[in-house]
Amino acid sequence: MSEHDAGETSGLTPELQAKLGELGDYLVWRIGTNEAEDLLIVRVGLAASTRRFNELPSLRNVGERKIEELVKEGRVRVEWVE
User: Fold this and answer.
1) 26-81 belongs to which homologous superfamily?
2) Model confidence pLDDT, tens digit, residues 9-60
3) Does the CA dihedral 17-33-66-38 come out positive or negative?
């Protein structure tokens, strides 16, 4: 976690930070863009859903600058993978 990220969670109680850390052990995510849309796609699911991630259309890799640009412009979609 970078200093920037740590600052964003400083408003959380230590208990909530610990619980979020534990939850992170059970999550899988992929971040990228697709061919059809110029937006950042964040796919999140439980580790048990890993096979389902492979069934979804591929995401293209995206660099940090492009991620920052898309986030600043509000062009982000979060998908929950079951």
Assistant:
1) Protein of unknown function DUF3248 (3.10.20.570)
2) 568 899 998 888 888 889 999 999 988 899 999 999 999 999 999 999 999 9
3) negative
